[in-house]
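We emphasize that the prediction below concerns an isolated chain of 346 residues; any contacts that depend on oligomerization or on bound cofactors are therefore not represented. The input was used exactly as deposited, without trimming of termini.
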Amino acid sequence: MFFPHRIPSLRIKAKLTSFNAFLALFLVSLLSVLSLNGCAFKSGDDLMLQVGITNWPGYDVVLYAQTAKLFENRGLEVKLVRFTNPQDAARALLRGSIDASFMNLSVAMQADPGNDSPVFIMVADTSYGSDGIVAQPEIQAVEDLKGKRVAAKLGAANHLILLEALQAYGIKPEEVAIEDVSNEIAVQLMEKGKVDAAALWEPLLSQIKQATAGNIIHTTKDVDTLVIDGLASRSAVVAEKQEALKRFILAWFDLMQVIADEPDRVFADVAAQLGQSAESFAQDYAGLKPGDKAMNQRMLPGGRLKEAAQQLRRLLSSDPRHSRVLREDFATNSEPVVAAIEIEKS
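Result of the prediction step, given as a C-alpha cell string:
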C-alpha cells in the first residue's frame, strides 16, 4: 500500500544518515591533521608542570606570571615549588619530584647524582652588575688581590665571580687565598676586617661597600659573564613534555614583554608577594639582563650557552679547591625555545 505521508520522513532520515557519515569523516580528518601538526589534544598531566624556584629576583618575577594568568592564557598549569637553596632544587629535579627548576648554570653542571641527567632549556637572566667583588678601602683593583684573602663559597656562584675576575686580569687562582664561607659569614668577616675582599651579590654588595667604606672592584658588567640563570629540566621530561615546556617558555616571553613595557606594574606585584618594597625589588632586578627572546636566541640556538658551559668547565677546573665533580652528562637543549620562537613569529 502506498502511504504518501511517509515519503518526507524517509527522505529526512536518509539525509540525516548521510550528514552523520560526513560529520564523522570530517572529525576523523580534522583529528588526523591536528595530530600531524603536533596540535593534538593533550591530557591534563601533559600540560601541567611543577617548577622549582629559589629566592632570586630573576626567578621571582615568575610570580607575576601566576597572578596575571600568563601560564593559564597559554593553556598550561604551573605549580611553583619554593626551595631554600638551589642545590636542594637540583636534587629534587633529578630525583623526579619536580619537572623543572630555575637554577644557575654552574649549579646544573654540579648537581648531585639522581635518576636522570640535567638539561638546560631556557635562560632567565644573566648577571649585569648584580654580582661582584667588594674590597676593603686599601684595595683599589682586582690586581691588588694577589696574596690577599677573599671570602667566597667554593664551587658556588661566588667562586665563579672571583675566578672570572682573576682570569680577566691574568691572575692565577692559587695566587689568592679563599675563605670558603657562606654569604652571611663573608659579610661578618668583611665588617670585622678579617678578609680583604668578598664575592657577593646585591644588595649585600652595596651594603658592605657602604658599611666598610670599601670599594667594589669588579662586577659582572665587566665581562661576558658565565653567571647565567635559567630553567633546567631532566632528559626524560624534555622528551615527554615538549608541549608543556614550549608553552612555559611562551608564557615566559610574555612576562619579559610585560617587564619591558610596564616594569613598575610587575615589580609592585612581585614585591607585594615577597613582602618587600617595589623600589628595593626594582633595584635588585636592575643588575640583570632579562632572558627575553633575543637573549634566548643568542644563548641556545645561537650556541652561546653551550660555549659558556665549556668555559665554565675550564674555569672551575682551573681551581680544584672546590672539589666538586662537574657532570659529564650535562646538556643543553634548544628545541623548546626554538619551537616557542617559531610560534611567536607566526
